[in-house]
Amino acid sequence: MSDVATLESFRLADSFLPVGTYTVSYGLEQFIQDDRVEDATDLEGLLSTYLRRQIGPAELVALRAAHAAATDGDIEAICHADQRLSAVTLAAEFRESAQQSGDRLLSLQTELRDEALLNRYAERVDADDAPGNYAVVLGVATGLADVAVREACLLCCHGFVTGLLGAAQRLLSLGHTDAQRILNDLQPVMTAAVDDSADRGIDEMTPFAPLVDVLAAEHERAERRLFAS
């Protein structure tokens, strides 16, 4: 990649990016409340499941499709990938969180980049023709910035894991060293998820993590919540 594309990927991966992902735990809060995640070992196992069963088979597939469509200037393909991702995401909180962070990222990108395709996509989202999921917006943003698709997928995995590790530090007695150790240990799982997504088309989005979906549904009805999801 060019230096500009590399720097753009760094910006998109930075926790400083104001897209609100710090407000979500994607069900982790409920796992902790139910004593299913009590320490760093439990947390690493859950994050591995997320990567292998949800992020890889769904978000990364949508990201790849959006990245290719953005490169080709195909707004219809972007919207189709966006709609399909929402259709296979069972938990209402997950859909809402993905759309809220996606909306923030899309608004930010349209402010920073003079790209006709971004503006057309934003118009489709505003018209409710596309949900504006974060993974799809990220695919469009990285495609237009000439960030290679594999690096874009790795960026998505890294951002997801670091976001949940940040949530875990507020919910568990998880130190910075343990968080970095988990991030390091999950690198092979991230690359495996990226490899798996490369062989899937839009119609092959098959996230399957039933317990995650069940606890996400419980979290929607929890009386007290620190996180939006």
Write a short abstract of this structure.
The protein is mainly alpha-helical and 229 residues long. The protein is built from eleven helices and no strands. The model has no long low-confidence stretch (mean pLDDT 89).
Protein traits:
229 residues, mainly alpha, Urease accessory protein UreF, 11 helices, globular
Description:
- With 229 residues, the chain is an all-alpha fold.
- It has one domain: Urease accessory protein UreF (Orthogonal Bundle), CATH 1.10.4190.10.
- It is globular and about 50 Å long.
- The chain contains eleven helices and no strands.
How is this fold's topology laid out?
Layout: H1 3-13, H2 28-33, H3 40-72, H4 75-88, H5 92-112, H6 116-126, H7 134-144, H8 149-171, H9 176-185, H10 187-197, H11 210-220
Helix pairs in contact: 1-8, 3-4, 3-7, 3-8, 3-9, 3-10, 5-6, 5-7, 7-8, 8-9, 8-10
